[in-house]
User: Fold this.
Amino acid sequence: MPEFDTVLHPDWVIPIAPRRQVLTAFSVGLKAGQIAAIAPREEARLFTANEHITLTDCALMPGLINLHCHAAMSLLRGFADDLPLMTWLQRYIWPAEQQFVSPEFIRDGTELALADLLLGGTTTLVDQYFFPEVTATALDRAGMRALLTFPVIDLKTAWARDAEECINRGLALRDQYRDHDRIEVGFGPHSTYMLSEQSLSKVAMLAEELDAPVQIHLHETRDEVLNSVERVGARPVDFLEQRGLLGPRTQCVHMTALGEQDMDTLTTFGAHVVHCPRSNLKLGSGMCPVQRLLEREINVALGTDGAASNNRLNMLGELQLASLIGKTEHSDSKAVDAWTVLEMATINGARALGQDAMLGTVEVGKAADLIALDLSGVHHMPRHDLASSLVYASDGTEVTWSWVAGQAVVRNRQLQTLDSSDLTNRASHWAEKLAAYKQTLEH
Assistant:
């Protein structure tokens, strides 16, 4: 029997741990879905394996962890652009969702998104959207790793009548995937303004009882914070803490409108921040003070948000933008440097998931969730600094291979679990329907 399933021979390994290191002429052996060896190239070439893969001019690193997405909203890509958040939601997105969201919409939009995500290097996804059971099936078929935070909202939707039914359906899904090796289910209360105090308190009680992750949109805009103070007499993060929903299993998404007291609260309760730079900029929501959060040892991860408010689901683009706006936000060229954003997209994401013992670095014993990036392009030459090249020079097309639990889901830039032609045809079908509906909204 071969010693390894697969042995990978890249020119460089970026392990993330130890920090800020690059291994040259090392190979990585995979066995039973895990990283089983990291060895010098000449030694590894002698390993017996089912497959040896030479990755010339490639850097091998942990798969990227996208901590926030609404995958099915890929069908709304470009549907309503250049609008402020609440206008975008109330005039276009929410009406379109009421009109079209169905299991078929979720299936087609999710699979379209997964193709984009995989080709951009995402191997683990946190998603929050309606019909999460359909999303789970699509993710499982695609071979990805995921946390599904089922939506909890007080309004009637196509998926559930109210928050109570959201919770009941979500808990049933959690039971269904209890023993799944790649898919976990947690709570996704939308926000403090879309749920009553009672609903938020119920989510807090159940999440604590089940030790389940919670993801919530929080401090997305300055207006959200001001409205919260007027409505309930507390800033959203404080209101969340009062309801018992703030803790080390809480992922707070966006966090652009933050004061010192908010950051003190996050530090005290050990909650995580999910930064979605491109979406926040596109909606004019503001900028998350990433460097100040990191200086307080608050864990900050990265997400793309949905394609409706981003247009791309490419984490390499988020890496670059997070670093550049971090420097601008803090007027400091050293802030949010290249290595920092690489960590945000890997090990920090794993920490936010509570899975840093399994994901986020290239280490023996961890899951074989890996990506290979081609750095042969002229725009990467002369490669003085690999971290710099990956973050500042990448155009988002560098991913050539991707493995989840040791299985290749992208091979030589070709999707292995999804049919891109079929996805394109289905997307075109939805484009016609949505375009006709948009005309009714604007007349």
Q: What stands out?
A: The domain at 4-62+362-412 is CATH 2.30.40.10 (Urease, subunit C; domain 1). The chain has a mean pLDDT of 96.
